[in-house]
Amino acid sequence: MDISLNLPQQAFVNKFVAKNKFYERANISSRLQKEFVDRIQRITWKYKLAEETIGISKTEKVTEIQVFELELKEQVIPVRVLKVIDRAIPYQILYKFQYKDSFAWGITLKEGNKAENYYFSEWDEPILFDFTGIDLEKVYQKLVKAFIEVGSETKKDFSELVASDASKKQLQTEIAVLVNKIKREKQFNRKVDLNKHLLDKKQKLKKIEEELS
């Protein structure tokens, strides 16, 4: 039993789930089926967080939270495969990825069967999850927040945090693209213009980071 999550025995399932169960439900392409086979060794349903297992009330949006462990054949998180699993399972899912002696965590930002976004830890990065809350929706929000760099002083609610984190990641991507463009640019005037855009995006990023701190 994985005692690192410190969940009650009643929530422990530890049931192997055959990969073809997801094929049958999702009607996926042969290419994606091959990705299941090539990248995943085993899928285990580790925990079920529900009213009857952890004594915390469900809400309309979050009726259960599942914890799945994916034993991988390579140290690459298979996002396309996760989307198939999330379409098949109508609950929020916390993922643990295991590759040999290394591990990583992931969680779906999800309502119903629709996965809106994914959050992942670094490999072998320890994360402290808090499974307490007045209802399962609050528990789920705490799990998502564990993946977002948030300071103790932030006043943002959950939806604001998610939106700010998405903006932060988008700006980080845009900044990286601009930095590469500037390195390749030969024309001085164009380089000056790109640097102005870069400075503007860095200032916006700094503002968001300050709001999250």
| Percent helix range | 40-55%
Gyration radius, in Å: 20 Å
Average pLDDT reading: 89
Number of helices: 7
Strand line-up of the largest beta sheet: 1-2-3-4-5-6
Task: Name the structural class.
Answer: alpha+beta
The major beta sheet can be summarized as: 6 strands, mixed
Question: How are helices and strands ordered from N to C?
Answer: EHHEHEHEEEHHH
Oligomer: single chain
Structure characterization notes:
With 213 residues, the chain is of the alpha+beta class. It folds into 2 domains: 3-145, no CATH class; 158-212. Helices cover 44% and strands 23% of the residues. The protein is built from 7 helices and 6 strands. The chain has helices spanning 20-26, 30-39, 51-54, 79-88, 136-145, 158-184, 188-212, and strands at 12-16, 40-49, 65-72, 92-99, 102-111, 114-120. It has a 6-stranded mixed sheet with strand order 1-2-3-4-5-6. Strand 4 and strand 5 (102-111) form a beta hairpin. Helix 1 (20-26) crosses helix 4 (79-88). The model has no long low-confidence stretch (mean pLDDT 89).
